[in-house]
Amino acid sequence: MHESHCEQAVGGQVVGPSTVEIDGLRRPEVVTIERMITRRWRGWTTTPGNADAYATHFEGSVRPRLEALDGFLGASLERVPGDDGRTEIVVVTRWDSMDAIRAFAGDDIDAAQVEPEARAVLDAFDERVTHGEVRDDAAFDQLALIDVAAEAAAHPPWFNETLTSVNDAVVRLGVLEGEFHWHKHDEEDEFFLVLDGTLLVDLQDGGRTIALGRHQGLTVPRGVVHRTRAPARTTVLMIERAGVVATGD
């Protein structure tokens, strides 16, 4: 069975794998997520039509089997064409626990599960996946003191937590290391403030990279395809509209 890019909620309240159709693919609706484990995988192809072939394989074969597994919370898939003619396919599964992932992937939970049908249409793919923890319910009430440094120190990368809400926005804490995938938000801007470490923000249009050091910030406008990279452990605050799924969809 292959990896996937999914969306849903857990932690006492589970929101089912609701999806909508966008550009011929089933994409997740905006949902309220309390806590989940994400499992992210990427593949690449330069052959015209192969990205469509992979999506067909995923929707027809992979997704139905994933949906039959205990602890699986949903799935989505994203394709990002590059200027070099190569298409990046991002597939992430979301689960309610590491035990559920272990039941799916085996003891070597970081090993990618890539079926022969997927290998046949991809030029390259991740042999190892990236796991992360996402907590979308606010960790702190208003008027509660938030020790951001202590909260960040308590979690390894990748970690993304909603600290609190402010009007119609949320303030999120990210503990990052490594490379995220190309993505964009069609309806929302996104603000990054580096608290510790270095965050590189790659912009697909023009091939530009903006490097953010400690106490430097950047707003990425809606619709802009971008990717974040952290060469070493980096702590970031992010501000965006409430309801945005914090997994790069």
Task: Give me the secondary-structure topology.
Blueprint: E1 19-22, E2 25-28, E3 35-45, H1 50-67, E4 72-81, E5 87-95, H2 98-105, H3 116-119, E6 124-125, E7 130-135, H4 148-153, E8 159-166, E9 169-179, E10 190-196, E11 199-203, E12 208-212, E13 217-220, E14 226-241
Parallel strand pairs: 7-8
Antiparallel strand pairs: 1-2, 3-5, 3-6, 3-7, 4-5, 8-9, 9-14, 10-13, 10-14, 11-12, 11-14
Summarize the structure in words:
With 249 residues, the chain is mainly beta. The chain has two domains: 19-132, Alpha-Beta Plaits; 138-241, Jelly Rolls, CATH 2.60.120.10. Helices cover 14% and strands 41% of the residues. The protein contains four helices and 14 strands. It has helices at 50-67, 98-105, 116-119, 148-153, and strands at 19-22, 25-28, 35-45, 72-81, 87-95, 124-125, 130-135, 159-166, 169-179, 190-196, 199-203, 208-212, 217-220, 226-241. Strands 3, 4, 5, 6, 7, 8, 9, 10, 11, 12, 13 and 14 form a twelve-stranded mixed β-sheet that branches. It has a two-stranded antiparallel sheet with strand order 1-2. The protein is globular.
